[in-house]
Amino acid sequence: MALVTRRDQDGLAIISLNRPDTLNALSPNMFVELRQHVDNIAADTDNIGCVILRGEGRSFSAGNDLKAIQAGERAPSAHFQAETLDAIEQLPQPVIAAVQGHCYTGSLELAISCDLMIAGDSAKFADTHGKWGMSPTWGMSQRLPRRIGLLAAKEMMFSGRVIGGEEAANLGLANRCVPDDELLDAAIEMAQSFLANSWFTLRTDKMLVNGGLQHTLADGLAFERENSPGAGPDMAERLAGFSKK
């Protein structure tokens, strides 16, 4: 059985963590499969314009699979999992996380490597590194403050407390919270609203926003001017279509 599945529809790739019997615990072998899908999508910008990352069953993911590691599973390299999250963040296409149920620690790090997030009303988010005397290496200390702000991120990390979907939306961790039975439809609806626009612009926007975050405001403005590729290949067609309306 595939640990990670992919389904494509009309320019949208839906990647699903597929270990519902373990609450989609993130084993090294699961990361190997996830990375293959991510690398394939990165190279397929002609056919894939947006991505949804979700989990089968009642949880997005309960977090890192310590039992698999104890049983001897090993990733291909020391920082393979962290580098896979980097690869998701660096995908040319926008990535939406659809999160229900557990989203703890490693799986929270996975979710915030995505550009956007929709939370189900059952979603439960927490950073439990402190509970186990562990420290983050997959990006929590860098991505969480950038997502929700320094004070809220430190409070989440220091306390380890669980926050629900509504609070996640209020904090800016998620874009919105919806009933669980509407979660996938809401993520697809968001993706379709992106796909109706120029895929060239989607990729450009993501590149410029993410690249600019590595700079001060002044340097970021210069980065935009120096790196914006200008008009897309579909601009003339889109303008012509607009003039006919």
Major sheet characteristics: 6 strands, mixed
Principal-axes shape call: globular
The CATH architecture of the largest domain comes to: Alpha-Beta Complex
- The percentage of residues in β strands lies in 15-25%
Notes on the protein architecture:
- By secondary structure, the chain is α/β, with parallel strands linked by helices.
- It folds into two domains: 4-195, 2-enoyl-CoA Hydratase, Chain A, domain 1; 199-243.
- 44% of the residues lie in helices and 16% in strands.
- The strands form two sheets. It has a six-stranded mixed beta sheet with strand order 1-2-3-4-6-9, sandwiched between helices. A three-stranded mixed beta sheet has the order 5-7-8.
- A hairpin with a 2-residue loop joins β1 (4-9) and β2.
- α1 (28-42) runs parallel beside α3, α5 (140-148) packs across α6 and α9 packs antiparallel against α10.
- The mean pLDDT is 95.
Features:
three-stranded mixed β-sheet, globular, 11 helices, alpha/beta, 2-enoyl-CoA Hydratase, Chain A, domain 1, six-stranded mixed β-sheet, 245 residues, 2 domains
Quick rundown:
The protein is an alpha/beta fold and 245 residues long. The protein contains 11 helices and 9 strands.
Q: Topology of this protein?
A:
Elements: E1 4-9, E2 12-17, H1 28-42, E3 50-55, H2 66-70, H3 80-89, E4 95-99, E5 102-104, H4 106-111, E6 116-120, E7 124-126, H5 140-148, H6 150-159, E8 163-164, H7 165-171, E9 176-178, H8 183-195, H9 199-212, H10 217-227, H11 235-243
Parallel strand pairs: 2-3, 3-4, 4-6, 5-7, 6-9
Antiparallel strand pairs: 1-2, 7-8
